[in-house]
Amino acid sequence: MPTLEEKIKKRLDREFGSKIYxxxxxxGIRVPxxxxxxxxxxxxxxxxxxxxxxxxxxxKRDTVTTLLVSNEDSIExxxxxxxxxxxxxxxxxxxxxxxxTGKRKIQRIDEKIRELLNESSMRASSxxxxxxxxxxxxxxxxxxxxRGRVVGYTKARDDVSFGDVAVxxxxxxxxxxxxxxxxxxxxxxxxxxREHLRENIYRTRTKLYHLLVVDxxxxxxxxxxxxxLEEIAKTVLTVSYEKRSYVGMxxxxxxxxxxxxxxxxxxxxxDEVLNRLKYGGLSPLASALRMGLILLERARxxxxxxxxxxxxxxxGKANVPLYPGGYVRRELMDLCKMISQSMINTIIVxxxxxxxxxxxxxxxxxxxxxxxxxxxxxxxxEDARDILDSIRGKGEKEVVEAGKKFLKDLEN
Length: 412
Prior knowledge:
Blueprint: H1 4-11, E1 18-21, E2 26-30, H2 44-54, H3 56-62, E3 65-69, E4 74-78, H4 79-88, H5 92-96, E5 98-101, H6 110-125, E6 141-144, E7 149-155, H7 167-176, E8 180-182, E9 188-190, E10 198-204, E11 207-215, H8 223-243, E12 246-252, E13 258-264, H9 267-276, H10 285-300, E14 306-314, H11 328-341, E15 345-350, H12 359-367, E16 370-372, H13 379-391, H14 396-411
Parallel strand pairs: 2-3, 11-12, 11-14, 14-15, 15-16
Antiparallel strand pairs: 1-2, 3-4, 4-5, 6-10, 7-10, 8-9, 12-13
Helix pairs in contact: 6-8, 8-9, 10-11, 11-12, 13-14
């Protein structure tokens, strides 16, 4: 069966032919170059034309990633970055947002994870309801009612609580409006009317909750994937410490998910949890998502100025239903719909070998999540181990050849 890359190369017009592959949640684009890296800002006009023929709204609605295919290679990246490149008239977002390519060098992933977390927070801050028209800020928000430091006042709402009435500003308003009435014992007294009421404005720090859902169903010998997973998790812990946000962790293996770390600001406890995780077993991904949804909803409570982020780091396997005889995929999609409706910012990180598996892309589509495939870390360590093994018991010539091969692998 041909791969998606082969379909695009064979069936689409070489001059920026494009098509939405809905089953793969991918926009395929054929580019007229030997290598995709040859794409320049001057090529944006034909790229824009091709995208507009399909419809930007259709692309936003139906795709998670975009796959550019040249004569010799291909590059996959988030569709959001394609839209950003078109709007800003530069290919720079595409170059920085590569999801996967066949000939990638090992690179640091922490900056990409940091960017995903920051963008999720900023996106949430634009829709989180606060006191001002611009939405809540990530660092602090202004609101009516509740707790916080009083920083001002405004005209009271119809359902204002007595405890939130700003007494002095209310009296001052009544006086300025000349609202007096004669007292029975003589003299005048201030008459406070409904329209004179003023309500306190509070300033409070917006709470940030970062929940890590960590797939621990890897085999213990899958060291590269486990190392990549741990690197991503440590980056989330670092960002949580920097932002003084709450962080929690759920592991996903065996018959059901397990709460490893309740929400806390003590990031050091997260490192301890990571160090004691055990790997292997089945993949109860649906159980992990359900637990994550419950925890985040409980953390939000009745507050509106809270930013919730769930990062799912997984290999893309799911083989344990919530209930005996259940259909796992349908359960996952139902949970994704619930997560989307709960306004939880979701980031799905695919740390698995089967990158062509569409399950995680469909989950990203259903939850309106960011999707990322990090490069697997640890290649050089494994190569070094291989060369040491090859040296044992061999002569000088074999050692030299093994060394040359090792250096060549490092260059690639």
